Fold this sequence. Notes:
about 140 residues; about 70% helix
Amino acid sequence: MAKRTLALLGLLEALFPRGIVTLAERVTFRDRGEAELRSWIVPVARAEGLLWLLLVRRGSMPALGTLLGVAGLPALLAPRRTLDVALRLAYEKSETIELASWVVPVTRVIGVVYVLAGLRSLRRRRSSTGDAEPADEDDSA
């Protein structure tokens, strides 16, 4: 089930990167201010979607779990700073963006979920002797 969900999310991001970015802005920004999305963000969003699809298709769920775990650490430990850095990278005049009040706490929760996914992946790899595949590997995309 996890593989199918990740594949679907990757496909949507690969096919509709601009729509995904616009939706994220509508949901998370209280006020965009004078911020302008940098020109390279939409192509990078498409590439990210393609990367998710590739990792899922190749059965690289352990690598994906590790990637999520590493990405989740900053969100868990310093959600406001993580958001500030992400916004500075993605937007010119990012300091004019006003986030919705729920974004920082939800970023921390997402960090927790990602770190737990990374730890689960690590635990599965350690318990696997090479002859038994993790349960997610059997789920086809």
